[in-house]
């Protein structure tokens, strides 16, 4: 038993029966220790989550250069400039394009893959691990490996195209081709992970529902669309929202995909520069923290809006026939 | 006589007819996916084990060569590889330890203790999951510079001491894993709260803590943007060292991919050893999430 020594301020007189020191201590313990246990999160979040978010807004109102002791206040000038900044809108377009090319196929394939994994396979764990392996890879390693695979001169993909008698594609140079290549990288890493999340939800669907559908004469395809998908709705929403938040912040892949290594341009004509990459370039290459903060805030709002839209769309799509909850 | 309710060990014919046994097509598709998952790793090792001349060949060879160790040695000469490994291990380990400890504590409080404001505070934590932490990097960088931490590993460790995801995860698990009766019994025996956490709660939530530890370790090990911003080139993590390798020696792909292979092998081994638990963890988290 822990014997607690604490300063004996106001030690109770021996007269009243019980509220002994130890009991009171134990009462305090019950009352206050929960706050002590949750405190680390709130302290850390306050310092590295909430404060930065607000401080980013503050910095974005200044012409704030790295190392500047007394940055001048410029109000909304950074934002005004941003809305007229072609490179920023180009980055927004690239981000959305890469996001659509990655999240769309990724979620569709993940659901199909989960359906395959949901059959009575031999060695189910082995297959699941196999599907999940890309998740273990480091983004940087993957970025480098895929940049190599998609290389213009020595890339394996172009060698294969050439062997098949098709013209090689300069993956990095084109807008669409570079977006496709980056989306492939993203999809390679995340499809298996999402498939497992969807699979988990599929396994939670009670067998009776499927069996009832079989009795009613529904074929596998019909069952998939009318039973499985609607019941997966909460999980699909979760997957769509997380991939929206992740996809719109994409940074590592486009940074490493650049032939001019170490560059933040996102290709010779910024054809695959994403918003986060542009923010990084403004903040840590051009040292314009004020402008970079404005980019960060606009990106944040963009994410919120798109996540909301996706939420509504997913809710609708998965609500076909007999959608519940 | 046993009651013929269900034949235990082999329910083959009956159920199979209904739900369909996976056919060849299913296995073939999955096999293609698994091979596709493995291929980039293999390719990276393939290039790493030859000299970069192979890439100019019209039909690339498909078997590894014998140059891997020579290339690896050159990696060690080019960047501070071992130092970066040490840094990454230090960062990932400390972040993992604190995240698991603080998340379990908070999860215990939210799941099992009654206190004023518990529910709103928990909802708040869940909401913060949606705030992309990446977007706070600028003020965080300014703060780190003010503190004089920029360039030091503590600048990478401290912001990641505990995560909203960790708290959420541990809370979800603790709700079911720790019976109130056990806590009450311990209280009656005169246990302090922290002892109850340590001796009653923590042993019961060990599986969830293990999964959280693996997730946290991998996330921390793979982090790139924030270390890139806050650390300097002389004191990198593994991911930064890889990036340096690529930007410095961009023509020599054998060297660069030898680096990525070296950095990937340890985590791949860990993954294959713990794959079963990781998969179970993802599936479990998904059901509850």
Automatic annotation (TrEMBL), chain A:
The keyword Transmembrane helix applies. It is found in: Cell membrane. One of its GO terms (biological process) is transmembrane transport. Gene3D superfamilies: MetI-like. Coiled coil: none annotated. Keywords: Cell membrane, Membrane, Transmembrane, Transmembrane helix, Transport. This is ABC transporter permease. PROSITE patterns: ABC_TM1. SUPFAM superfamilies: MetI-like. InterPro entries: ABC_transporter_permease (IPR051393), MetI-like (IPR000515), MetI-like_sf (IPR035906). Belongs to the binding-protein-dependent transport system permease family. It comes from Amycolatopsis albispora. The chain crosses the membrane at residues 32-55, 96-117, 129-151, 171-190, 231-251, 289-313. Residues 92-310 form the ABC transmembrane type-1 domain. One of its GO terms (cellular component) is plasma membrane. Residues 1-20 are annotated as: Disordered. It is a multi-pass membrane protein.
UniProtKB/TrEMBL annotation, chain B:
The keyword Cell membrane applies. It is a multi-pass membrane protein. The keyword Transmembrane helix applies. The chain crosses the membrane at residues 24-45, 89-110, 122-143, 149-170, 196-218, 253-274. Residues 85-274 form the ABC transmembrane type-1 domain. SUPFAM superfamilies: MetI-like. PROSITE patterns: ABC_TM1 (PS50928). Pfam families: BPD_transp_1. It comes from the Bacteria. InterPro entries: MetI-like (IPR000515), MetI-like_sf (IPR035906). Its main location: membrane. This is Sugar ABC transporter permease. It comes from Amycolatopsis albispora.
């Amino acid at each position: 038993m822990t014997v607690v020594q604490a300063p004996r301020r106001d030690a109770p007189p021996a007269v009243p029966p019980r509220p002994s020191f130890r009991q009171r201590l134990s009462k305090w313990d019950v009352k206050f220790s929960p706050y002590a246990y949750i405190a680390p999160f709130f302290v850390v979040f306050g310092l590295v989550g909430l404060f930065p978010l607000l401080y980013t807004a503050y910095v974005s109102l200044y012409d704030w250069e790295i190392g500047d002791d007394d940055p001048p206040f410029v109000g909304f000038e950074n934002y005004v400039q941003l809305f007229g900044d072609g490179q920023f809108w180009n980055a927004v377009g690239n981000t959305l394009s890469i996001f659509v090319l990655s999240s769309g196929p990724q979620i569709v394939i993940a659901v199909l893959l989960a359906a395959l994994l949901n059959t009575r396979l031999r060695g189910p764990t082995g297959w699941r691990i196999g599907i999940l392996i890309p998740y273990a890879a480091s983004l940087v390693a993957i970025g480098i490996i895929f940049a190599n695979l998609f290389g213009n001169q020595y890339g394996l993909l172009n060698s294969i195209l050439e062997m098949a008698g098709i013209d090689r594609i300069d993956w990095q140079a084109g807008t669409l081709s570079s977006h496709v290549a980056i989306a492939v990288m993203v999809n390679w890493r995340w499809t298996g992970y999402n498939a497992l999340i969807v699979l988990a939800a599929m396994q939670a669907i009670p067998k009776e529902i499927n069996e009832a559908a079989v009795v009613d004469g529904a074929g596998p395809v019909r069952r998939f669309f009318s039973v499985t998908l609607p019941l997966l709705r909460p999980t699909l929403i979760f997957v769509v929202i997380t991939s929206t938040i992740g996809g719109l912040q994409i940074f590592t892949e486009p940074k490493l995909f650049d032939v001019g290594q170490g560059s933040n341009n996102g290709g010779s004509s910024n054809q695959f520069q994403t918003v986060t990459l542009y923010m990084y370039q403004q903040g840590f290459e051009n040292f314009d923290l004020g402008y970079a903060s404005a980019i960060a805030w606009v990106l944040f709002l963009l994410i919120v809006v798109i996540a909301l839209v996706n939420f509504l769309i997913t809710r609708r799509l998965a609500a076909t026939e007999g959608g519940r909850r | 006589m046993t009651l013929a309710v269900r034949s235990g060990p082999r329910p083959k014919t009956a159920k199979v007819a209904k739900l369909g046994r996976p056919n060849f097509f299913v296995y073939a598709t999955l096999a293609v996916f698994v091979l596709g998952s493995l291929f980039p790793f293999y390719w990276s090792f393939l290039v790493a084990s030859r000299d970069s001349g192979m890439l100019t060949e019209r039909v690339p060879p498909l078997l590894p060569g014998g140059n891997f160790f020579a290339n690896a040695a050159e990696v060690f000469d080019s960047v501070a590889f071992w130092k970066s490994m040490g840094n990454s291990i230090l960062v990932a380990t400390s972040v993992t330890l604190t995240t698991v400890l603080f998340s379990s504590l908070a999860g215990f409080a939210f799941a099992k203790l009654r206190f004023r404001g518990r529910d709103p505070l928990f909802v708040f934590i869940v909401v913060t999951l949606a705030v992309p932490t990446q977007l706070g990097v600028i003020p965080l960088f300014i703060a780190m510079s003010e503190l004089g931490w920029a360039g030091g590993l503590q600048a990478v460790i401290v912001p990641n001491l505990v995560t909203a995801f960790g708290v959420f995860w541990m809370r979800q698990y603790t709700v079911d894993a720790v019976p109130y009766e056990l806590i009450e019994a311990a209280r009656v025996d005169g246990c302090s709260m922290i002892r109850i956490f340590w001796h009653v709660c923590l042993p019961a939530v060990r599986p969830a803590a293990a999964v959280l530890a693996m997730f946290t370790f991998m996330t921390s090990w793979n982090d790139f943007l924030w270390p890139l911003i806050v650390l300097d080139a002389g004191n990198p993590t593994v991911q930064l060292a890889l990036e340096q390798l690529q930007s410095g020696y961009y023509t020599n792909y054998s060297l660069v991919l030898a680096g990525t292979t070296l950095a990937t092998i340890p985590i791949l081994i860990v993954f294959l050893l713990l794959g079963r638990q990781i998969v179970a963890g993802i599936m479990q988290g998904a059901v509850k999430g």
